């Protein structure tokens, strides 16, 4: 129903962002909410997909049309819902995902949260040869300086919202203790570590 929303970014949480358009705040579930940190109180364009369930009307947001395309391909696979698709997109390695599907690399695919062997095999079956990505433009960094470990705490909360287990996150958090970075960068680094 909605292709994109253009408005002022007014709120960032671990699970979603809020974009205000004409006095109405739209909640958008996104893969990495903290990727939008540098755009707080500024105008943003977020590509969207609406999911209507019996108990909720949800909007999912994406930084690019290519990211949205990947999401739509993923939710077309039996066993993959929107939350799992967002967790896969959050890794920000679309080329690696496509390569894993084309090479039938089940081991790589099962590293994503809530993706077991059967679902990974279904991904290969449904998406092999069909998963064509358009050239994804480089997204400018929206990183901002954050102090203490607030950014790390926010990153871990966002990853938990994506479905990663607390035991996994505890190890990751320990690895980053004593470092200073943005929540967005912590999430990107942690996801890359988990995918190895």
Automatic annotation (TrEMBL):
Residues 147-196 are annotated as: Domain III. Coiled coil: none annotated. GO terms for biological process: DNA recombination; DNA repair. It holds the Pfam family RuvA_C. SUPFAM superfamilies: DNA helicase RuvA subunit, C-terminal domain (SSF46929), Nucleic acid-binding proteins (SSF50249), RuvA domain 2-like (SSF47781). GO terms for molecular function: ATP binding; four-way junction DNA binding; four-way junction helicase activity. It comes from the Bacteria. Its main location: cytoplasm. Keywords: ATP-binding, Cytoplasm, DNA damage, DNA recombination, DNA repair, DNA-binding, Helicase, Hydrolase, Nucleotide-binding. It is found in: Cytoplasm. Residues 72-91, 107-126 form the Helix-hairpin-helix DNA-binding motif class domain. GO terms for cellular component: cytoplasm; Holliday junction helicase complex; Holliday junction resolvase complex. InterPro entries: DNA_helicase_Holl-junc_RuvA_I, Hlx-hairpin-Hlx_DNA-bd_motif, NA-bd_OB-fold, RuvA, RuvA_2-like, RuvA_C, RuvA_C_sf. The RuvA-RuvB-RuvC complex processes Holliday junction (HJ) DNA during genetic recombination and DNA repair, while the RuvA-RuvB complex plays an important role in the rescue of blocked DNA replication forks via replication fork reversal (RFR). RuvA specifically binds to HJ cruciform DNA, conferring on it an open structure. The RuvB hexamer acts as an ATP-dependent pump, pulling dsDNA into and through the RuvAB complex. HJ branch migration allows RuvC to scan DNA until it finds its consensus sequence, where it cleaves and resolves the cruciform DNA. Belongs to the RuvA family. Has three domains with a flexible linker between the domains II and III and assumes an 'L' shape. Domain III is highly mobile and contacts RuvB. Homotetramer. Forms an RuvA(8)-RuvB(12)-Holliday junction (HJ) complex. HJ DNA is sandwiched between 2 RuvA tetramers; dsDNA enters through RuvA and exits via RuvB. An RuvB hexamer assembles on each DNA strand where it exits the tetramer. Each RuvB hexamer is contacted by two RuvA subunits (via domain III) on 2 adjacent RuvB subunits; this complex drives branch migration. In the full resolvosome a probable DNA-RuvA(4)-RuvB(12)-RuvC(2) complex forms which resolves the HJ. This is Holliday junction branch migration complex subunit RuvA. It comes from Streptococcus cuniculi.
């Amino acid at each position: 129903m909605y292709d994109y929303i253009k408005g002022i970014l007014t709120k960032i949480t671990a699970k979603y962002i809020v974009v205000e358009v004409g006095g109405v705040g739209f909640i958008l579930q996104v893969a990495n909410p903290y990727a939008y940190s540098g755009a707080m109180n500024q105008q943003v364009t977020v590509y969207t997909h609406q999911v209507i369930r019996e108990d909720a009307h949800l909007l999912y947001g994406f930084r690019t049309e290519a990211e949205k395309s990947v999401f739509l391909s993923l939710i077309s696979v039996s066993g993959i819902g929107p939350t799992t698709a967002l967790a896969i997109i959050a890794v920000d390695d679309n080329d690696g995902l496509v390569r894993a599907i084309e090479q039938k690399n089940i081991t790589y695919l099962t590293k994503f949260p809530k993706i077991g062997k059967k679902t990974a095999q279904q991904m290969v079956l449904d998406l092999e040869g069909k998963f064509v990505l358009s050239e994804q433009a480089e997204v400018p960094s929206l990183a901002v300086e954050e102090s203490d470990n607030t950014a790390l705490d926010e990153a871990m909360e966002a990853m938990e919202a994506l479905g990663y287990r607390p035991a996994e996150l505890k190890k990751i958090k320990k690895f980053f203790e004593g470092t200073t970075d943005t929540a967005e960068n912590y999430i990107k680094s942690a996801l890359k570590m988990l995918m190895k």
